[in-house]
User: Which sequence fits this backbone?
């Protein structure tokens, strides 16, 4: 065998064997797109986006699912506990009594403790509305009413995020994840391609958002407070 | 879709066009980035940064290369910068004398050809490794590599040749695999 022939055979051998070098996993398309959108939105708003993770994240991504679930349980516990003490919430200063009330109205009323409780109650109601939206999206697709509701809920989510009453880091993480998802749904329309809906589904599955959301909603009627 | 039309739609703020651009390029970018860094979290972070920068700078794209090549160039730049930063952080945090080697030296006895090859690729100088990964592993042409790395095609070919020569030396013990 000549040297050239040997070289050619080696090059081909190398090309084949090198395919096993760090074989890439499937591209996490949906998750990456959500992160890219969030980063661009934050950049436009002049904020630092939570999705642009530092090179050495102090809070590993895999831990987020557990901590977010724990946060959701925390909110639930606080909500139920305080509501029980106050006899269902109707006497709670600033409590939201309508599912369509704007979160800001509740927060404007009552003293500090009352405002914090009102915030928590509002958040739980908000989660219930989002859960309902996801059910509608699944059963009826991305109709105009679904996307319109997504935009409304996106506004409410941002109000909740901006509130000084939001001090729980894990609740903040849940709201931030919901913000990204709602932003995605709000861009859908009846003519959206199946892969557009897949983006939302993949994102929900990857962040375990649906189960985290449901963990935050107490059993029983949320709006009868 | 014509490249220029797609870019115009993206610059006009059309979200569907942005997603189209992303979907057309993300797989190839992610694959290369993953090959370069070998870590899913890092690959995702770098790919995300690459596309954020792509959208930010799209207005400056002059069409000297294919859009995909331009995006690849951005991604490689992101990876290089990120890996250098990581190296600086690690050198501050770890006593290098006692640190585990990032790449296992080809001089150590490795019974497995696959592991020896991986170690040999890890040991390549950064430029050689990038050209090798782009050409022999991910199938980029020398023209694309030249445009992405800002080098001449001839330089890309030369670097590939040197990379292969080094790898051949590292795999000398396994010459029977291809020489017989």
Assistant:
């Amino acid at each position: 065998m000549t040297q050239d022939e040997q070289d050619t055979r080696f090059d081909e051998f190398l090309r084949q064997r090198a395919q096993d070098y760090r074989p890439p996993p499937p591209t996490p398309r949906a998750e990456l797109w959500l992160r890219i959108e969030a980063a661009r939105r934050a950049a436009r708003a002049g904020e630092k986006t939570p999705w642009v993770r530092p090179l050495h994240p102090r809070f590993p991504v895999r831990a987020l699912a557990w901590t977010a679930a724990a946060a959701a349980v925390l909110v639930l516990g606080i909500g139920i506990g305080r509501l029980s003490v106050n006899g269902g919430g109707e006497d709670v200063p600033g409590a939201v009594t309508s599912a369509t009330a704007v979160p800001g109205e509740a927060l404007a009323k009552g003293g500090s403790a009352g405002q914090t409780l009102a915030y928590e109650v509002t958040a739980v109601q908000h989660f219930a509305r989002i859960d309902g939206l996801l059910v509608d999206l699944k059963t009826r697709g991305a109709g105009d009413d679904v996307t319109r509701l997504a935009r409304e809920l996106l506004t409410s989510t941002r109000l909740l995020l901006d509130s000084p009453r939001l001090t729980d880091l894990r609740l903040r993480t849940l709201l931030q994840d919901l913000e990204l998802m709602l932003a995605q749904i709000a861009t859908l329309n009846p003519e959206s391609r199946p892969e557009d809906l897949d983006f939302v589904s993949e994102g929900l599955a990857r962040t375990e958002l649906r189960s985290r959301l449901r963990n935050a909603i107490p059993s029983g009627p949320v709006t009868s407070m | 879709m014509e490249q220029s039309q797609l870019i115009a739609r993206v610059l006009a703020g059309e979200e569907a066009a942005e997603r189209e651009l992303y979907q057309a390029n993300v797989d190839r970018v992610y694959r290369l980035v993953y090959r370069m860094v070998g870590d899913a979290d890092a690959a995702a972070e770098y790919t995300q940064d690459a596309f954020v920068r792509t959208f930010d700078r799209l207005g400056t794209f002059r069409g000297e290369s294919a859009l995909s090549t331009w995006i690849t160039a951005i991604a490689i730049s992101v990876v290089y910068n990120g890996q250098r930063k990581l190296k600086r952080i690690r050198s501050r945090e770890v006593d290098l004398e006692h640190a585990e080697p990032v790449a296992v030296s080809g001089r150590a006895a490795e019974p497995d050809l696959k592991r020896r090859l991986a170690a040999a690729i890890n040991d390549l100088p950064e430029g050689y490794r990038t050209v090798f990964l782009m050409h022999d592993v991910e199938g980029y042409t020398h023209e694309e590599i030249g445009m992405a790395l800002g080098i001449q095609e001839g330089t890309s070919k030369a670097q590939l040749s040197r990379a292969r020569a080094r790898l051949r030396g590292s795999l000398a013990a396994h010459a029977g695999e291809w020489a017989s």
Chain A has a mean pLDDT of 69. Chain A is about 65% helix and 0% strand. Chain A touches chain B at residues 1, 6, 9-15, 17-22, 24-25, 27-29, 31-33, 35-36, 39-40, 43, 51-53, 55-57, 61, 187, 196 (CB under 8 Å). Residues 166 and 175 of chain A are 10 Å apart (CA to CA).
